[in-house]
Amino acid sequence: MPVLEVEDLRTVFLTDAGAVRAVDGVSFTVGAGETLGIVGESGSGKSVTALSLMRLLEEPARIIGGTVRFQGRDVLAMSGEELRNWRGDRAAMVFQDPMTGLNPVIRILRQVTEHMVSHGRQTPASAKLRAVDLLRRMGVAAPERAAASFPHQFSGGMRQRVMLAIGVANDPVLLIADEPTTALDVTIQAQILDLMRGLNREFGTAIVLISHDLGVIGTVCRRVAVMYAGEIVEEAETAAVLTDPRHPYAWALVNAVPRLDSPAGARLVSIEGGPPNALDPPPGCRFAARCPFKIARCETDHPPLIEVAPGRRARCWVTQDGRPLPPPPIAAQAALREPAPEERPLLEAENLVKHFPLGRLGFFGPVPVVHAVNGVDLRLRRGEALGIVGESGCGKSTLARLVTRLHAPTSGTLRFDGQNITNFSAAEMRPLRPRMGMVFQDPYASLNPRMTVGEALAEPLLAHGRVATKAEARGRVLDLMATVGLKPEWAERFPHEFSGGQRQRVSIARSLALEPDLLVADEPVSALDVNVQAQVLNLMLDLRARLGLSYLFIAHDLAVVRAFCDRVAVMYLGRIVEEGPALELFAEPLHPYTVALTSAVPEPGRERVVLRGEPPSTLSLPNGCAFRARCPVARPVCAEARPPLAEVAPGRRVACHFPGSFQA
Amino acid sequence: MSAAIAMPVARPRWRRLLRRYGPAWAGGVIVLAWLLIAVFAPLIVPYPPDAQDIVNRLAPPSAEHWLGTDVLGRDVFSRLLFGSRLSLLAGFSVVLLGAAIGVTVGIVAAWSRGFVDEALMRFTDLVLCFPPIILALAIAAALGIGSTNTILAMLVVWWPKFARLARALALVQRSQEYVEAATVLGMRPVRILGRHILPNTLGPLAVLVTLDLGIAILTFAGLSFLGLGVVPPTPEWGSMVAEGRELVEQWWVAAFPGFAILTVVVGFNFLGDGLRDWLDPKTRSR
Amino acid sequence: MPRYIATRLLSAIAMALLASLVVFLISALVPGDPVLAQMGDIAASNPATVLEWRAKWGLDLPLWERYGIFLRGLVHGDLGISIATRRPVLDDIVQYAPATVELATIAFLMAIGIGIPLGIAAAVWRDSWVDSAARAISLLGVSAPTFWLAFIMLAIFYGWLGWAPGPGRIDPIAFPPDGATGLFLLDTAMAGDWEAWWDAAAHLVLPATVLAAATIGLITRTTRAAMLDSLGQDYVRVARAKGLRARVVVLRHALPNALVPVVTLGGLAYANLLAGAVMTETVFSWPGLGRYTFRSAAALDFPAIMGITLVVSATYLMVNLLVDLSYAALDPRVRR
Q: What pLDDT score does A387 carry?
């Protein structure tokens, strides 16, 4: 008997405007010990599906149709008592954000044991033993001590391990995980995904994994269901979807994501537009308006989920006869200006340091200091794109704010176009500001909610006297909007009326308003859906070719950086540990950290090095090499001397005593 | 296929709208009505507020005297309408001046950081460590009886909460990414303050000001009740209640002025809550 | 943790010192000479006598020296002599404080006992009739002027229905109970005089309800908002996904997190009840600090007002300190 059978599930949100169909007729089956992934962009209904399965939705959401059978029992017909007995016992759920999922005022031990006891699986005493055992198995260091602690003392990765321990405490038959690694760094993500594979392999726990990232699903799940606008549009083996998607939306999803092994200069596939109105979906295929392959029938007839090949189904009229979709075209990339080597660098940093003193803990004791950036050297030539990669807390965002002089460096030297701007005051910086633009990570926070897009774009022009009148500014604003692909009539709109991707375009347009030489982009695409990410990345590539911009591009996603940048610098604990040409560096990483980082990228077929532990605290820097505690090839010398960033091959610099000695 | 499934509908639209906006509208109407009464009081009262009619003293509500007469035979209804002038005036002056002082202190503190910030905030904390009504009482007593002195005394205890809020808001604002974005674009501090920070702090401040107007009116009436707010025979709600507080049999002397205070405070509460909901992006779809 | 307590204690002492300075400055700099007020007109008309008086009270010394003397007096419990009662202010305060403490404590217990459950219920059954009722109660509580509410309650329950006893702490023909604490409920209970206990309790009902009204409103509102916030958190969803009972989810997972703001407010509310009893005590002829304050204010009795301000502010600071320390008990993130 299958563990989970979902038949024609329908969930709506009741709003003022009407019933929004969040999940609209979803059916799938998960057998005992099977793994199923559900993938889709935000708003596709994947998380609502997960919550519907557990009946964890609250008003105004309501399940209005379909059946959910768990080992033959009708979940939707269970009474409150039956539901409680089932939830957390036979079926468990793990949520996205480990930072908020644990109760801050309850000790970890009780959070792991309380449902073992309440479901009658363990006595309080035996639950305690089991909790410590579970924490150990989930890779929590010093589990006895951890059990007695409160959640705030742990990092996100550790908390997600605790969440997993809570999830599997009663040996559930089914584990539903909703974006369990989205809030985590890539090396920690690899550890958690490893754990989930282990659960499935060793205990036969069936897993439903919800994610926006097909790569993540590919490392855990054998099968995947692709959701779009509340429906499943394709269901097949994950490997098959990754190599040969049969629904155009799945095709777009697969080809929108840059991969570490994709050919150099390949353009990302981006489909314009957004999902249809969920209040009143169109009569035909819901993807038709955005589909590059659509035929006449798609506009009028709603396609059913058709078997297109043995074991795979797709909701598409084009592929119903079993033919595959063509691979995306590789567009010829516009030739970029090759920077002349003797030219003066546009941006130059020497031994740049930034420390943040924290508030005192009391009248006594020292002031704690966050060592955010600890001596960074970098040179950015004109027309070049330099990528900075690293995990959260490595100092890359602080570096972005240092080179734009939003922060004042603690020490070191910073030159912009030959001028030493290290100690420039705000007033001295102001004449230079037009030459450096900045794009921020969060498209929601970086636009003033009370200014229209037109006002936001006109403001820098007027303030710097680039235009004399508002009427004159309006012409420039419309040009800018056209440059980034926004419609002119949107100038009167406020930021909240736009989607995330459109806002990021506004943000880019604003940073271009003063025609800068340098654009500093701090995680410009990490808050966006993969398709929107592809749109924004393509736009930024075009602008680079058209305007000759130099980029300092900060990101945590290695493949994105590889697709976008000429050179890459890898940061760890406030220092650059490796630097070199993008393609070479990712093809043949020399620093053990870079090796681990590239191998942790969730792409199928990648040999995985699971890195132990987590980055050390920035409050006190370790002696010697900062990476040695996690390094698989560390030797005594690494604890004594800090390796300098030295050139080991033409254009390749590495801060390691034994470069290249560790390979995946 | 999906047509076969009946789409459920939410509650009737008018009930939801009433629930969501009803109190705010009611609050607006109450406050507006009292403002109009205060402005036009001399034109609408049936009797001059201090005209005594000793023969008719303590008369119960009747057709001639809608709300009865007080110990000196004065018309309670007329005095009640006139009383709104001082109450609203005191409420608005205390809150608006207090907000002006407090916001200035708070923004200066947030902007300067370091020693100035520390000194200003310690001073604010110092004032906050006194129980407000007692401190106001002490200062009002020191300055002497009278509405101006009472308002001054209230101002002394009123500004600190605005200073705290304004500083907190300004600190949140200055770390907002759109403020950073404006800095990167080379905007001058004055422009950043005026165009980016102030407009985004006005909302929460407006909510606090509105809710506070009710509290200020209550406090002023309380101080008057204790004999500090006004010099007799000026009509004022708190002192009217005080005049009638022994007259349990002649309940109308004290009951109606107190009820008037209640309506004004409820009005400002409704209005403030409505304003907060309206400004909250979570409850406001568009 | 000890470091945290030490820090908070030091800053509380610093604030108390500053507060005393403020009180001193107000009393030293206000128009109106306290000496003249105490001397009588005839003595005051003779400049030599005035100078002598001033020298005797140290008023001819520089301000900072006078502050030193004032502080020394404070340490010895000398808050000056009340002009109205001609007794040491501290003696007056000691005499009147128990009545207020009793009233405020009962009112506080009522506010907590009604406000927190009401707030929880309103949040759990959001938009139901319970919620509407809770919101109406809290709105009326915070909007009704205390002195007016006191009058109305007295007029209805004493004057009209006759259900409640009249003003005062105890039946006017009865003798106040002897006892060490001055808290009638405690004293009568310890003496085993249950008739007197009932009398004292009956006299407490109306004033305590009136005094509690605004605080019930505030606590209900705050509890409701904090519970709504807490119920919307991820950890509550996790708790539900564990299959825990609704009671456990609400009381064990959501409530402890919602209590932090409620405790802040509760602490402040208790201090405010002590200070805010002025109006209630006036209407109910309650022989407590509030009435003493009212009489002192009406008589412009400066030493008394300053003494009260100082004592109440010190209490305020103490309560705030306790509130801050209780955070550490409620929220492990504060302990460091």
A: 94
Contact at 8 Å (CB) between C301 and C83?
yes
pTM of the model: 0.85
Residues of chain C with Cβ-Cβ distance to A106 below 8 Å are 252-253, 256
Contact call for B189 and A426, based on CB within 8 A: yes
Which pair of structure tokens corresponds to residue B230?
A: 């006004």
Structure tokens at A205: 């726990």
Token pair, residue C86, equals: 């001609």
Identify the pLDDT of residue A338. Answer: 60
- Output the pLDDT for position A121: 93
Closest to A642 in 3D by CA, of A569, A576, A567, A598: A576
Give domain limits for chain A.
4-99+172-314, 347-444+517-654
From the candidate CATH numbers 2.60.290.11, 3.30.1360.40, 1.10.3720.10, 1.20.140.10, the one assigned to the domain spanning C94-330: 1.10.3720.10
Residue spans of the domains in chain C: they are 2-75, 94-330
Q: Average model confidence (pLDDT) for chain C?
A: 82
What is the per-residue pLDDT across B82-112, written as a single tens digit (0 to 9) for each? Answer: 989 999 999 999 999 999 999 989 888 887 7
DSSP string, C26-41: HHHHSSS-HHHHHH-H
3-state secondary structure C51-94: HHHHHHHCCCCCHHHHHHHHHHHHHCCCCCECCCCCCEHHHHHH
Contact A473, A467 (CB under 8 A): yes
| b/e sequence B185-219, b meaning 16+ C-beta within 10 Å | bbbeeeebbebbbbebbebbbebbbbbbbbbbbbb
Residues A56 and A11 sit within 8 Å (Cβ to Cβ) = no
Among the residue ranges A150-164, A165-179, A452-466, B53-67, the one predicted with the least confidence is B53-67
CATH number belonging to domain A347-444+517-654: 3.40.50.300
Spatial separation of the C-alpha atoms in residues A306 and A322, rounded to whole Å:
10
- A331 pLDDT band (50/70/90 cuts)? low
Taking alpha carbons only, the member of A612, A580, A606 closest to residue A593 is A612
Residues of chain A positioned with their CB less than 8 A from the CB of B196: 448
Chain C hits for B214, CB-CB cut-off 8 Å, are 143
Residue B263 amino acid letter: T
Q: pLDDT tens for residues B30-49?
A: 999 999 999 998 888 888 88
pLDDT at A648 over 70: yes
C38 band by pLDDT with thresholds 50, 70 and 90: low
Name the class of domain A4-99+172-314.
Answer: alpha beta
Whether A308 has its CB under 8 Å from any CB of chain C: the answer is no
CB contact (8 A) between residue C147 and residue B255: no
> Looking at the partner chain, which of C142, C271, C282 has a beta carbon nearest the beta carbon of B131?
C271
Neighbours of B269 (CB within 10 A): 24
Contact C21, C27 (CB under 8 A): no
Q: Residue C192: count other Cβ atoms within 10 Å of its Cβ.
A: 8
Of how many residues is chain B composed? 286
pLDDT of residue A54: 92
* HEC readout, C220-270: HHHHHHHHHHHHCCHHHHHHHHCCCCHHHHHHHHHHHHHHHHHHHHHHHHH
Interface pTM (ipTM) of the complex? 0.84
Task: Answer yes or no: do A363 and C239 touch at CB < 8 A.
Answer: no
**CB distance A246 to A309 below 8 Å:** yes
One-character DSSP codes across A541-552: HHHHHHH--EEE
CA separation for the pair C113, C311 (Å, rounded): 28
Answer whether A421 touches B (CB < 8 Å). Answer: no
Edge-to-edge order in the sheet of strand A306-309: A91-94, A174-178, A206-211, A35-39, A223-228, A231-237, A312-314, A306-309
Two domains, one topology: A4-99+172-314 and A347-444+517-654 = yes
